[in-house]
């Protein structure tokens, strides 16, 4: 195995406390509160015990709907990310704290300052997962409404990040006054003036840089424009390419090529696909456990809701354990009400579902599970450790952002059983060697500070 | 006997713009976790009911140029404290009410029901937000609307909206989730919130008297109860005798930068004279918010000589660990306006 391109590569783990999704099982007796601070503290502290790089919170700025009504089947209702992470900073020491924050419905002076506050309070452990929105449906919760054209969402995001960096760079590193005659050295703070198609602002930065320079920038966009944005601005990619080795490697190679094209070193970012990890004593037990988990995640009601999205009309009165609908899908207008779950060609998807259901004699619910996202890894601790060591040394991934299927205990197996196996194989740290998120990830200084 | 509630403002190094010169740490230490934690713990240990954290998107006019956001500071100390209320100043003129409501509801969850909100208006420059300026009557309009939207959003989730009904596969009860459909003069908000209802129902809304129609706590500068709020707190700037007489301490700081007159009454003198003054205020107002001259110098005097005397005479009481801020203040938990209506 000496021909690995990255023989010394290390795996980096993050944990994604999802909060809004159907992948976290809420029906199990061990499923804890999704809003109590104790649940978040427990997951963050377990991850820190497992020497994870980061604790990650998502965000969606409108409660999801299906068929024009509040979607009531999934977990929903989660805390504001920066507020919650500021509280978690007080009860953790080393783990990175990553907040998903939107560039469409925020302003740079405010968001850059909030992220700086988190970064200082945590001693340099903040991260920002940069996301965009353009739909008017989300805009109904905000002063400006749905003002942004779809084509401009990454334009604004790029200009937003540049404004945030200027704010973060607004304080000289030697800002304290040497003689104590003033609070800061005169001239140590540079006002930021931004004037372009998206912003016309004058900002006096209120905070110095943390020990890591800037918060680490995460990004998850997968479209060509999203990937280019990532190659230009991001330091970690939270990808959807973590289930299949060839797919993960192709994605990583594509990102590395885009990085180089953007004038950055090929190792200038980390790729952490989102995943679910299921652990058991034998491969058979792990597969069985994963099947059980899928049935908990894709309840009959959820299966019908997903099918309703494909067919474009309400199927909630059908039998999930019966056949697929005999009708053809109808075209409906996309509002973005179920977040990123877009269905572009409904007829083709329905045709594929029918083909598989007939060939494998599957019910509607079984079809939804069979053709749903292949998002997880199931196996024994040693089998998974061998697999992940192979993946990371091959350059297919730099680690995973793990979504526990159960809150707050879903990470325990990974920390207690998988991490030691990874450590035995030399692909996982045995102690934190740095104090900042940037150091954990082995990243260079921020792009504007080199 | 009426209890006097004791609040303290903890921003920066103290109320005086030159307070940083007397701080027990250098300027860079102000912007750290350690300092943020220490001052909050001192206020809690002293027995204060409520800590407030001043804020704006631009630095204070004089003194320190750096300030961590008030919501972030309050959230950070939430798991490190158990009894003191935590009320960040959050502006309303250009901020997004939807975000503000999410942040404050989250602070209430993280603090197990100890969150408040000091409502501010007209404290931030429109150029920082890239918005047209709002002045005059517009300031009160934006403040009123922001508070209305936040309270509506707090009520947009019933207390038991997460029903976890395994039989039907429903995590949420739609009947307990409400579109707020707020339509104001300058914007509208659809709802519902993305954060479940705060433990207190609503965070405690604290506002300068006259800014909004119906605060939970009105802040006044003359010792007289006002009719439009359940509780009235008197703002009081304090400079106390330490080893050095208060007058001298104040004069030394004023020699660097004069302490601007804000319209708040000011108490300059001994701990004993402050105790007498506060005893006299009990019954006239429901509480005071103290603005100490220098946190590192005046907070220890408050802690050692003022609050113990007030507890001794039962003028004030120490909040109970685990109690919500509403419970401590004797404020009822608000009914949900959407569920009352239906």
TrEMBL record, chain A:
Annotated keywords: Flavoprotein, FMN, Monooxygenase, Oxidoreductase
Binding site for FMN: 100, 150, 154, 223
Highest taxon of source: Bacteria
rRNA-binding keyword on record: no
Transmembrane segments: none
Region Disordered: start-end pairs: 318-339
The Luciferase-like domain, residue ranges: 27-396
Pfam families assigned to the protein according to its UniProt record, in alphabetical order: Bac_luciferase
Molecular function, one GO term: oxidoreductase activity, acting on paired donors, with incorporation or reduction of molecular oxygen
InterPro entries (UniProt xref): Diverse_substr_monoxygenases, Luciferase-like_dom, Luciferase-like_sf, NTA_MOA
NCBIfam families, alphabetized: FMN_nitrolo (TIGR03860)
Recorded family membership: Belongs to the NtaA/SnaA/DszA monooxygenase family.
Name of this protein: FMN-dependent oxidoreductase, nitrilotriacetate monooxygenase family
TrEMBL record, chain B:
GO molecular function: monooxygenase activity; oxidoreductase activity, acting on paired donors, with incorporation or reduction of molecular oxygen
Tagged with keyword Transferase: no
Annotated ranges, domain Luciferase-like: 28-207
Name of one Pfam family that matches: Bac_luciferase
Source domain of life: Bacteria
Annotated keywords: Flavoprotein, FMN, Monooxygenase, Oxidoreductase
Cited InterPro entries: Diverse_substr_monoxygenases (IPR051260), Luciferase-like_dom (IPR011251), Luciferase-like_sf (IPR036661)
PANTHER family referenced in this protein's UniProt entry, alphabetically: ALKANESULFONATE MONOOXYGENASE-RELATED (PTHR30011), C2H2 FINGER DOMAIN TRANSCRIPTION FACTOR (EUROFUNG)-RELATED (PTHR30011:SF16)
Protein name per the record: Luciferase-like monooxygenase
């Amino acid at each position: 195995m000496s021909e690995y391109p990255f023989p010394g590569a290390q795996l980096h783990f993050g944990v994604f406390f999802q909060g809004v999704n159907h992948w976290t099982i809420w029906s199990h007796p061990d499923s804890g509160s999704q809003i109590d601070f104790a649940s978040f503290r427990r997951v963050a502290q377990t991850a820190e015990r497992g020497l994870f790089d980061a604790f990650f919170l998502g965000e969606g700025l409108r409660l999801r709907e299906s068929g024009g009504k509040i979607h009531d089947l999934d977990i929903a209702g989660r805390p504001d990310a920066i507020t919650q992470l500021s509280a978690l900073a007080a009860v953790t020491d080393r783990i990175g704290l990553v907040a998903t924050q939107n560039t469409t419905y925020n302003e740079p002076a405010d968001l850059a300052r909030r992220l700086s506050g988190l970064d200082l309070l945590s001693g340099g452990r903040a991260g920002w997962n940069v996301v965009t929105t353009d739909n008017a449906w989300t805009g109904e919760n905000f002063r400006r409404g749905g003002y942004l054209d779809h084509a401009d969402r990454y334009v604004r995001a790029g200009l937003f990040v540049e404004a945030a960096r200027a704010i973060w760079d607004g304080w000289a590193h030697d800002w304290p006054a040497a003689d104590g005659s003033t609070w800061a050295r005169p001239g140590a703070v540079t006002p930021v003036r931004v004037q372009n198609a998206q912003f016309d602002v004058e900002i006096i930065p209120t905070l110095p840089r943390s020990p890591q320079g800037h918060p680490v920038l995460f990004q998850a966009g997968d479209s060509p424009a999203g990937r280019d944005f990532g190659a230009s601005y991001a330091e970690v990619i939270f990808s959807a390419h973590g289930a299949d080795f060839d797919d993960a490697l192709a994605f990583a190679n594509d990102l590395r090529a885009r990085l180089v094209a953007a004038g950055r070193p090929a190792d200038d970012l980390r790729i952490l696909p989102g995943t679910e990890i299921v652990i058991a004593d034998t491969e058979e037990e792990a597969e069985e456990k994963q099947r059980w988990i899928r049935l908990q995640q894709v309840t009959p009601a959820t299966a019908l809701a997903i099918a309703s999205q494909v067919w474009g009309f309400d199927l909630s009165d059908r039998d999930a354990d019966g056949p697929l609908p005999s009708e053809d899908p109808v075209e409906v207008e996309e509002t973005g009400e179920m977040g990123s779950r877009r269905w572009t060609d409904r007829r083709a998807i329905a045709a594929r579902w029918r083909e598989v259901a007939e060939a494998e004699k599957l019910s509607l619910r079984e079809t939804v599970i069979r053709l749903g996202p292949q998002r997880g890894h199931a196996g024994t601790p040693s089998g998974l450790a061998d697999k992940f060591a192979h993946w990371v040394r091959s350059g297919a991934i730099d680690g995973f952002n793990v979504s526990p299927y159960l809150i707050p205990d879903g990470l325990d197996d990974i920390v207690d059983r998988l991490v030691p196996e990874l450590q035995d194989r030399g692909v996982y740290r045995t102690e934190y060697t740095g104090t900042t998120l940037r150091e954990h990830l082995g990243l260079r200084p921020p792009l504007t500070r080199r | 006997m009426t209890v006097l509630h004791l609040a303290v403002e903890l921003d920066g190094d103290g109320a005086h713009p030159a307070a940083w010169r007397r701080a027990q740490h250098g300027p860079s230490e102000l912007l750290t976790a350690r300092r943020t934690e220490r001052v909050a713990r001192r206020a809690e240990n002293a027995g204060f009911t409520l800590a407030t954290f001043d804020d704006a998107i631009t630095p204070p006019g004089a003194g320190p140029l750096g300030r961590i956001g008030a919501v972030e500071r309050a959230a950070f100390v939430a798991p490190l404290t158990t009894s003191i209320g935590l009320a960040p100043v959050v502006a309303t003129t250009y901020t997004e009410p939807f975000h503000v409501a999410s942040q404050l509801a989250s602070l209430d969850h993280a603090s197990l029901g100890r969150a408040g909100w000091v409502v501010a208006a007209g404290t931030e420059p429109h150029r920082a937000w890239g918005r047209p300026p709002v002045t005059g009557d517009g300031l009160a309009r934006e403040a009123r609307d922001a508070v209305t939207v936040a309270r509506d959003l707090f009520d947009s989730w019933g207390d038991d909206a997460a029903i976890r009904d395994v039989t039907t596969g429903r995590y949420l009860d739609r009947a307990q989730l409400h579109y707020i459909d707020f339509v104001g003069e300058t914007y509208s908000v659809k709802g519902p919130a993305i954060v479940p209802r705060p433990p207190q129902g609503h965070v405690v809304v604290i506002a300068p008297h006259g800014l909004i129609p119906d605060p939970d706590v009105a802040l006044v500068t003359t010792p007289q109860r006002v009719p439009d709020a359940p509780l009235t707190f008197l703002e009081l700037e304090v400079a106390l005798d330490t080893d050095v007489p208060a007058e001298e301490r104040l004069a030394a700081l004023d020699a660097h930068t004069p302490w601007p007159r804000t319209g708040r009454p000011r108490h300059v003198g001994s701990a004993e004279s402050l105790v007498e003054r506060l005893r006299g205020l009990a019954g006239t107002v429901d509480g005071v918010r103290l603005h100490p001259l220098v946190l590192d110098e005046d907070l220890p005097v408050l802690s050692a000589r003022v609050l113990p005397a007030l507890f001794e005479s039962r003028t004030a009481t120490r909040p109970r660990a685990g109690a919500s801020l509403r419970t401590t203040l004797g404020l009822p938990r608000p009914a949900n306006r959407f569920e009352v209506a239906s």
